[in-house]
Write a structure and sequence with these properties.
With 269 residues, the protein is mostly helical. It has one domain: Mitochondrial carrier fold. Helix content is 67%, strand content 0%. The protein has 10 helices and no strands. The longest helix has 31 residues. It is a multi-pass membrane protein.
Length: 269
């Protein structure tokens, strides 16, 4: 059961996190790129980054509790900490901001928040941008699309310029669906690139999140944590565990984007 410690909190976090991220992305995308002609790589990146930051702002406390539960192992003679035990311990720690904010213990649940936001900007931005770029290639490249696009059965003549298309029919032409394996590949590659680009900040974030567990009487900031990682392991220290991260992130992002696309088609949005 130790391998699943903190799993319940992960499930409680992932539902609102994913929902907020994809809904926010669609909203930011509609603002920045109301038409397909206005789509650019930079706007895709910005929309993805803003969506990632928005989702983190609402779900970060659950992420901190999840990391603490996964890290905090049971000591001999003591029961395994529960979610409530972890929450109480976080509240008892020194303030995670400057001393002038010491009375606001709620900020303890945002320990490591700034590096998380800093990491989410490249992670979410690169993730959505990479996914969009590869899907466009798989959909419209004359050499690749015959193998990656799913066969379509139109109830109208797509070559007739005089026909008035419904919004649903127009979406089908603008974004023809891909085969399942192609959708999964697009998402997996997006996760791979995004994880690589933001992993050093992920390492710093996790070190700060468990800092209160290792040294409950001391708050260590972003700069101190970065220096400590470099002092102990050098540049390689910022990529410790990256291969394990790939094993988790690549299939997770692949399935996430595939389900996202399938649900949009199912709901006709």
């Amino acid at each position: 059961m130790g391998l699943f410690q903190g799993h319940s909190v992960t499930l409680a976090r992932v539902f609102p996190y994913a929902a907020i991220k994809f809904v926010a992305y669609e909203q930011y995308r509609a603002i920045l790129m109301p038409t397909r002609a206005q789509e650019t790589s930079s706007k895709q990146f910005v929309a993805g980054s803003l969506a990632g930051v928005t989702s983190v702002m609402f779900t970060y406390p659950l992420d901190l509790v999840r990391v603490r539960l996964a890290y905090d192992v049971k000591e001999a003679g003591h029961k395994r900490p529960t979610v409530m035990d972890t929450i109480r311990n976080i509240l008892k720690e020194p303030a995670a901001l400057h001393r002038t904010h010491a009375k606001f213990k709620v900020f303890n649940f945002y320990r490591g928040f700034l590096p998380t936001v800093a990491g989410m900007v490249p992670y979410a931005g690169v993730s959505f941008w990479t996914y969009h770029t590869i899907t466009q290639l798989f959909r419209f490249d004359p050499l690749i699309s015959p193998y990656t696009r799913a066969p379509l059965q139109f109830d109208f003549d797509p070559t007739d310029d005089d026909i008035d298309l419904t919004p649903s029919q127009q979406r089908l032409l603008d974004k023809p669906p891909l085969k399942t394996w192609a959708e999964l590949m697009c998402g997996g590659l997006a996760g791979l690139v995004a994880q690589t680009s933001s992993y050093p900040l992920e390492v710093i974030r996790r070190r700060m999140q468990v800092g209160g567990l290792l040294n409950p009487d001391t708050f260590v900031g972003f700069t101190e944590t970065t220096k400590e990682i470099y002092r102990l392991k050098g540049f390689k220290g910022f990529y410790v565990g990256l291969s394990i991260g790939y094993i988790k992130v690549v299939p997770m992002v692949a399935v996430s984007f595939a389900v996202y696309e399938r649900m949009k088609r199912l709901l006709d949005i």
